[in-house]
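Running this now, will post back.
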Amino acid sequence: MKKSLSLDNKSIDGQNISYCIFGKGDIDLVIEMGLGAVAGEWWHIAEQLSKQFTVLLYERGRNIYKARSPKNIA
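Update: finished.
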C-alpha cells in the first residue's frame, strides 16, 4: 500500500508554499521541482536522503491553486 502524500502549507511574504520536512534538525538539503514536476515524484528520494540529512521538499506555485513564489527562495 502506498503512503499518501501530505504537505504542510506556510505563507511567506503573502505567498502560499506547500512543503514537507524529512528528518530532524537544521535543513541540509532543499529539493525544488522543475517545470511540471510535483512533490509526489520526489517523495521517495527525500525519504532515502533523510537517513543522512534533513530534507526540505517544497512545491512552488504553478497553477491557480498555489501562488507563485515572488523570487527564488532556495
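Strands lie at 8-12, 15-22, 29-32, 55-59. More later if anyone needs it.
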